[in-house]
Specification:
Elements: E1 4-10, E2 14-20, E3 26-33, E4 45-46, H1 48-66, E5 73-80, E6 86-89, E7 99-100, H2 108-126, H3 135-145, H4 147-154, E8 158-161, H5 163-171, E9 178-180, H6 181-184, E10 190-191, E11 196-197, H7 199-205, E12 214-216, E13 219-224, E14 236-242, H8 243-250, E15 259-263, E16 267-274, E17 288-292, E18 295-304, H9 308-316, H10 326-331, E19 341-343, E20 361-363, H11 371-397, E21 404-407, H12 414-424, E22 428-431, H13 436-449, H14 455-459, E23 464-468, H15 474-491
Parallel strand pairs: 1-5, 5-14, 9-12, 15-21, 21-22
Antiparallel strand pairs: 1-2, 2-3, 4-7, 6-8, 10-11, 13-14, 15-16, 16-18, 17-18, 19-20, 22-23
Helix pairs in contact: 1-5, 3-4, 8-13, 9-11, 11-12
Length: 497
């Protein structure tokens, strides 16, 4: 048996490749930055070929630096940014234009039309709110506005996919056009009850079946890597899952009631509900977390569009910091924000507000405000957004939540996790391997090939690094949170005329 598993996490701003051993320890890890394009206000795009190139570069580097040969890899698992949408030619393999990022809101007018005309019907079928993030409305926008895609679809030449579909298709030399239900469930195209594409929605959206990827489980062999592209190796691609749900799996949150907060470019709060489908409401969704053989695991999910992206903005545009790690240093230089609140609604507000018209703002700035206060406010904003999701989730779930697990790049920040524990009033658990998404993809691939025998085995491999306990009083906690809610209220509907 081969000795290692390769996990790939293709995120919005970073592509990671990580080699894990049988004890789920990181043997080697490499990251490659991804570029975003902003051609118009509210538009966010990526180049599909650059996504593929960053993936191959990350894999190449991790193999070279670890001195592990591809033949020593048992399987490849892929997690990816949810809902980013693209088309490509099934004969030439060439992408048609840029991918539309999940952060893009150009389809907002279409979403509003759907909400007004058939919103409750779609929401009831899909378990998902209608919001510009959804890939289905992005497809519809492209079919309405991009003539090259219109013609290509009409001629039967094009395939659609989210980033997982694109990577699996390319890495396998076009052998598989697939996606898993965790990626597909937020598209608005999948009926959450039948676990199939919904005929009526496809007709209403004008999307032909032929362009859509085949729906598969999250853990099975979809295809094998093309040796000509993949470093001379023919390896099983055996794990496919959306990044936020991969993080839940990577932390072994297998029991109903367990909660995972993943903090990356955006952030998510996901609660495992087992087989039970909870009705959508309170601004949260009811996604499919993963499927395995005859097993389906559902959840309650809530999303914030901007988390780590705010820190990247401080680095790239404001040039206040040179590296994201500096944010914690600056935040710790001051005892509080001096009354400053930051609402990072760069691409609107996600759950539970679902307001694409909101935009980012600072509140409470005075002459005494320093860059330290601004950075601290940005980190605190990440925690406040999670608190928003937390409160909405509790209403839907109907039970208290006693602790949460944490993952993603943001979990490296001790200041953030302590403040999060304080503002939630419950413990926050950080694992040794905080990049939970890539570990989840690796776990799923390894289960498919027999590298790991069962989920029970995986539970023993997830190790705790630190537990953050709250120390703020209830009065302090609520006073801070009320200030945040006041700031958010000022941003709601900012772009509306």
């Amino acid at each position: 048996m081969a000795r290692y598993i390769l996990g790939i996490d293709q995120g919005t701003t970073i592509t990671k490749a990580v080699i894990f051993d049988h004890d789920a320890r990181v043997v080697s890890s490499e990251s490659v930055a991804n570029k975003l394009y902003f051609p118009q206000p509210g538009w966010v795009e990526q180049d599909p070929d650059e996504i593929l190139a960053s993936t191959l570069k990350a894999v190449s580097e991790v193999l070279k630096n670890s001195r592990i040969t591809p033949e020593d890899i048992d399987a490849v698992g892929i997690s990816n940014q949810l809902m980013t949408t693209l088309f490509w030619n099934k004969y030439t393999g060439e992408a048609v234009g840029r991918a539309i990022s999940w952060q893009d809101d150009r389809n907002l007018p279409l979403c509003e039309e759907l909400i007004a005309s058939q919103g409750q019907e779609i929401i009831g079928k899909t378990g998902t709110h209608i919001f510009p993030n959804n890939s289905g409305t992005k497809i519809r926008w492209l079919l309405d506005h991009d003539k090259s895609i219109q013609r290509g679809v009409a001629r039967g030449e094009l395939l659609y996919g989210t980033v997982d579909s694109w990577l699996i298709w390319k890495l396998s030399g076009g052998a598989a056009h697939v996606t898993d239900l965790s990626n597909a469930c937020l598209s608005l195209l999948v009926n959450t009850h039948s676990l199939t594409y919904d005929d009526q929605i496809l007709r209403d959206f004008g999307i032909p079946y032929e362009v859509l990827p085949e729906l598969r489980s999250s853990s099975e062999i979809y295809a094998y890597t093309d040796p000509e592209l993949f470093f001379g190796a023919r390896l099983p691609i055996a794990g496919d899952i959306g990044d936020q749900f991969a993080a839940v799996f990577g932390q072994a949150c297998f029991e109903p009631g367990s909660v995972l907060c993943n903090i990356g470019t955006g952030s998510s709060l996901v609660l495992n509900t087992g087989k039970q489908l909870f009705p959508i409401g309170n601004g949260v969704d009811s996604p499919i977390l993963w499927t395995m053989e005859d097993e389906i695991t559902r959840g309650i999910g809530s999303w914030a569009n901007t988390s780590g992206a705010a820190i990247q903005w401080f680095r790239d545009e404001l040039e206040i910091i040179r590296d994201p790690s500096e944010a914690e240093v600056l935040a710790n230089r001051v005892p509080d924000t001096l009354g400053v609140y930051f609402v990072p609604a760069f691409a609107g507000l996600g759950s539970p507000y679902e307001d694409a018209y909101a935009r980012g703002s600072f509140f409470g700035i005075t002459q005494g405000t320093s860059k330290n206060h601004l950075v601290r406010a940005a980190l605190e904003a990440m925690a406040y957004q999670i608190r928003d999701s937390f409160e909405a989730m509790k209403k839907n779930y109907g039970a208290d939540i006693s602790e949460i697990h944490i993952g993603g790049g943001g979990s490296k920040n001790d200041f953030l996790l302590q403040f999060l524990s304080n503002i939630l009033g419950i413990p926050v658990n950080r694992p040794v391997i905080y990049e939970s998404s890539v570990l989840g993809a690796a776990f799923l691939a390894g289960l498919a090939t027999g590298y790991w025998e069962s989920k029970d085995e995986l539970v023993s491999l997830v190790r705790l690094d630190r537990r953050f306990e709250p120390y703020l009083s209830q009065e302090q906690r609520e006073e801070l949170y009320q200030g945040w809610q006041k700031a958010v209220s000022r941003t709601i509907g900012w772009l509306k005329k």
